[in-house]
Every structure is written in structure tokens, then in C-alpha cells.
Amino acid sequence: xxxxxLVTGGCGLIGSAVVERILAANGRALVLDNLSTGKxxxxxxxxRVELTIGDVCDDALVASHVRRCDAVAHLAAGVGVRLVLSxxxxxxxxxLLGTENVLRHAAAARRPVFxxxxxxxxxxxxxxxxxEAGPVxxxxxxxxxxxxxxxxxxxxxxxxxxxxEYGLEVAVGRFFNVTGARQSPDGGAVVPTFVRQxxxxxxxxxxxxxxxxxxxxxxxxxxxYVWRLxxxxxxxxxxxxxxxxxxxxxxxxxxxxxxLVDPRVKIEAAPPKYGAGFVPIRHRRPDVRRLxxxxxxxxxxxxxxxxxxxxxxxxxxx
Length: 318
Ligand SMILES: NC(=O)c1ccc[n+]([C@@H]2O[C@H](COP(=O)([O-])OP(=O)(O)OC[C@H]3O[C@@H](n4cnc5c(N)ncnc54)[C@H](O)[C@@H]3O)[C@@H](O)[C@H]2O)c1
Prior knowledge:
Elements: E1 4-8, H1 13-24, E2 28-33, E3 49-53, H2 59-67, E4 71-74, H3 81-86, H4 88-109, E5 113-118, H5 146-166, E6 170-175, E7 178-179, H6 190-199, E8 204-207, E9 213-214, E10 217-218, H7 219-233, E11 238-242, E12 248-249, H8 250-261, E13 267-270, H9 289-295, H10 303-316
Parallel strand pairs: 1-2, 1-4, 2-3, 4-5, 5-6, 6-11, 7-10, 8-13
Antiparallel strand pairs: 9-12
The protein binds nicotinamide-adenine-dinucleotide.
Nicotinamide-adenine-dinucleotide is lined by residues 8-9, 11-15, 32-38, 55-57, 75-79, 94, 98, 116, 118, 175, 177-178.
């Protein structure tokens, strides 16, 4: 019998790619999404996909959905610096309550869970790869941007508490800059923002000096990892970075986008995006050894192909 997977946040960038991966394995997807940043149109049209519009903070709804599935990919969260800064209490409450609901009901029903955490729990770094064996540490709590990391770190701690006390089978994946054609520029994500600017013939704007680095992973590769971790590649109680160890400076990213879209477009420096008090993260780079050991999978989608797919979709929807 085909497995049915509950995908919270399934209408979003990573969630919709996970749904596609589930279908490719002949499974069925039960999607729970409040459509705050995701779109139903991101889901494949397929009778094996069932969408419920609702919130992971709705305890009864989560309970009934968990009971109807064989495993849970918990990806729902308020995403994007802009959202976290504009609605910090709402984003944090949803993160804490929603994750607690999912973990508690999954533990009670004995369903395995993948929980989406973030590289933000590592805070800033000197550019060396960050390993799961090291401590987490972000910024001072009066810097609101860190409430997102604090919510995810609390979710991780809850996941391991449920694993320890109730035997919950859980894999916690810390995503590092996942991007792709379905990522909206509205939350401030850099690749779709650069693509949108270049397509409009406007200057590509860089905040800071452009020497900050990121490692980008295509959502399709991220989904493959989620699938493999859910499919038993991970032992219960696994913590793993999910990313590609291939840093690029933001200036070089801007040049790549410019060269692929329109070589005449200018690249310009801009003032800090979220005001002078905003604490930027200079570098984010994953140590991927545990990821490769657990899943045996190396990312297949090159960054240029990710950018091209963003360009194709942005052109088609302009
Ligand atoms: N994209 C990245 O680089 C990245 C990095 C680190 C962590 N993550 C985590 O991965 C997960 C997926 O992120 P994404 O990039 O696909 O973002 P996304 O915004 O595209 O997807 C999030 C989805 O969750 C839904 N959602 C939000 N709050 C909800 C709630 N309370 N109840 C139900 N649905 C809700 C949204 O409508 C959306 O469809 C998130 O948990 C995010 O924190 C992503």
C-alpha cells in the first residue's frame, strides 16, 4: 500500500517539492497549510494530493491529520525576515505552538516526523562549515530577527525531548538557504529578488559590501533529502544540516544572475535592508558530512540551473 505523508506547509517552496517527491515514490500527500506564504497553485494537480487549508496551531486539526498519515514532514512556519520583523509575536507563537502540536500528536500516534529547522540557529560564523556537533548560538533576544532562530531552536529541543521521553522517531533538518522557482521575493529571499530586479532591467541591489557568503540548495534537492530522512535513512533522534557546501559571495551571485538574465543590468550598493540596527549574518556554510553519510545523496541541481528555473517562472508569471 502506498504511504500517505502529512506535509505541513506543503504549499510552500520546500513543501511543494516534497509533495512532488512523495508522488514520484507512488505515495500520497496530505497537505496542511494556512496559505500565509504558500499558494495552492504550487501543488501538483493530482488526485493523490489532498489539501486542507488550516493552521498547525489548530490542535484538533493536527490530531486528526496526524492520525490519517503514516509519517509527517513538518515544514510549516512563518518564513522570511520581513515577516518575522513585522509580526514577531505571531511568528514565534506559531512556531512554538504549531511544532508542539505536531510533535505531541505524532508521538501519541507513533508516526515518524521530519522537522524543518534552520541554519539561523548557528548565528553568525567566520566562514568555516558549521557542524551539528557544535553548539547553537544566535544573537541577543532584543534583536527581533533572532526570534525566528529561537523558535526553531526551541522546536529542536522539543523534538529531542519527545524522542527521549516518548520514543518519537524524529529527524531534525537544519536547512541552509534553500531556493527555487517557487520562492517568493516578498519575504526578502535573495535569489528571487535579484531575478525580479534583473528581469525588470532595474539595478540589482546589494546590501553591505557583497562579500557575505551563502550556500544555495535547490528545493528539489532539499526535498530529496527530506524524503530520504523520512524514509528511514535516519536513526530516530537525528540532527542533520541540509545544504550544499559551496559558498558564493552575494556579489558573485548578483553577477551570475545578471549574466544569465541581462548583462546590461547594473549592480549597485544599497543601504541596509532592514535598518541600521539589523544584525546581518556574514557567512552561512554547512558541514555536510553527516548529511551525505545518512542519505548517500549529493545535490544534483547546479546553481545556474536553479537561477534559470527562477527566471523561467518569473517570466511566465509577470
Ligand atoms: N528556504 C530556506 O532557505 C529555509 C531555511 C531554513 C529553514 N527553512 C524552513 O523550512 C520550512 C519551509 O520553508 P520554505 O522556504 O518552503 O518557506 P515557504 O514560506 O515557502 O513555506 C512555508 C509554508 O508554510 C505555510 N505556513 C506558515 N505558517 C503556517 C501555519 N501556522 N500553519 C500552516 N501552514 C503554515 C505557508 O503558507 C507556506 O506554504 C520552514 O519551516 C522554514 O522555517 C527554510
